[in-house]
Amino acid sequence: MNDMRYRTLNSFLREKFGCRVHKITVDAGMNCPNRDGSRGVGGCIYCNERGSGTGVHGIQSITEQLELGKTALSQRYKAKKFLAYFQAFSNTYAPLETLRAVYEEALAVDDICGLTIGTRPDCVDDSVLDLIAGLNERAYVSVEYGLQSAHDRTLLLINRGHDYAEFLRAVEMTASLGIDITVHVILGLPGETKEDMLETARRVSALPINGIKIHFLYMVRGTALHRLYEKGEYHCMSRENYIDTVCDFIALLPPQMIIHRLTGDPHKNELVAPAWSAEKNVNLNAVRAELEKRDVRQGCRFGS
Fold first, then answer.
1. 142: nearest Cα among 158, 159, 119, 164
2. How far apart are the first and last CA of the chain?
3. What is the chain's mean pLDDT, rounded?
4. N or C: more exposed end of the chain, with fewer CB within 10 A?
């Protein structure tokens, strides 16, 4: 634990690799079963056509993306090693040989010390996880599962396309192979109370999960959420409510869990609301100040 009162990704990576390590986001051109009709169409209500991606697929290879990222991050942050972060859409949703090829291409780049694979819990099976487990014997590999909420009624409302039971199944399968797991959750989803959000914290805290990404819900142009907002059918979480909720959320997490992030990173030219979501440093400093004010540390209410 550090003076920020929670365990950060940066401190974990320094402990593991002995130097500054940064993620490089790569776009492997994957799709999503919630878009192509396998599970649904249109995607989650907050997701746009880029699916959190960079939009570079088809322009640059995996190797080119990583080399550009290495140059920028080594200059800006003095990073020595890097993780290839497969972020856009569902990065286990492709034929096995395609997955093997893109993962191996990334690991072949100098100074890439591991992979972070963003995907959905309904997009893994034994063959995919066996592939990832094999890579994990040679380099650090983690899987990031988008959950967003532990409540099935919310998952249905946001058009998530899977339920909580599928998430539990994926976590059990992945953990049994010794693969690190990170879960994504979103605070401020439609219809959820503060207690609903804290119940999600309690549920994921009881699972063999190594890390968590906590986002607040913001809306970008062209999404179903944007349309609800324009009709007055959705109201954004205030910064004050977010800070209050996330501090209580942190207190419920196990002390060893790595908190990868506490904010989102909306593209400013796509963001509709809330405006405060673009003020990353302001938001982080406000959360840290509130933790200090309350004398709260990660895990101080774990198990309660």
1. 119
2. 20
3. 94
4. C
